[in-house]
Amino acid sequence: MEFALNAPAKINLDATKRSPTPNDLDIVVRDERFNRETTPNRWWAGDAFGTAWHNALSATFPRGEAFFIEAVKAHREGAEPKLAEEIRAFVKQEINHTREHIAFNKLAENAGYDIKAIDQRVKEMLDLTKDRPAIANLAVTMALEHYTAMMAHEFLANPKHFENADPEVRDMWRWHSVEEVEHKGVAYDTWNHATKDWSDWQRWKVRSLVMVSVTGRFFKNRWKDSLNLLAQDGITGWKARWGLFKYLTVTPGVVRRIFPAWLAYFKPGFHPWDHDDRELIQKYEGEFADALMPAE
């Protein structure tokens, strides 16, 4: 693909010539386990809307994170040693996340929620990607990894998201969030490696268009899933829609609060580590020192 006729001259639209990923960043595999014996109330987040939103997210993670792993691994050949090591750590972290969200999803099912329809739809969507070029799957992964990083930052920075949650459920989401922040640059750096022969304009254009597409599908599907779960609690119609909208945009307002970070993705030269938020990781490590034991 060539965009030479339309490309602005001598404008660096991407970050391939530099990688703001910190040189001293360590991606630590925290082999933690949660929710094996937890029996929280049905509304573990303290209210129906937070519960529905997080259950809807979690229902997509086991298959989604397996997709992320394969998309990144498909482009590791020829990566510089530092990136190759980060990819290996990314894969290990995501494998653990998959395991823990399987356990969490069982917890939701034990509380009476039917999330099988969400899992089935994710399977059907991912089946459509099997014949797609591998680079397209990496572009989607990069966009969705930005979503997980944005929400992870918000979940760690704003205690309101989990202030009424079951303690062990809260710890699981915080653990997951820490590792999403920690490896937030891996898919992006892998993309830069895989597209090193592309023009800056082509790379910027593709990642921006993919993010717009991913955003539309992400919110359409999570909104639909959350309303389905709310209906299982007997909350339907305008009450369900308004309550979910208020939860997402007012208090605690995760969608409203991540909007600036979402917008930054379209900035020429953007990189996930333009914002170094490792202080959130350090805060977690200070509170949970025993979580630093590496995986065997």
From TrEMBL:
Keyword Hydrolase recorded: yes
Top-level lineage group: Bacteria
Molecular function per GO: hydrolase activity
Keywords, alphabetical: Hydrolase
Stated name of the protein: Metal-dependent hydrolase
Taxonomic placement: Bacteria, Pseudomonadati, Pseudomonadota, Alphaproteobacteria, Sphingomonadales
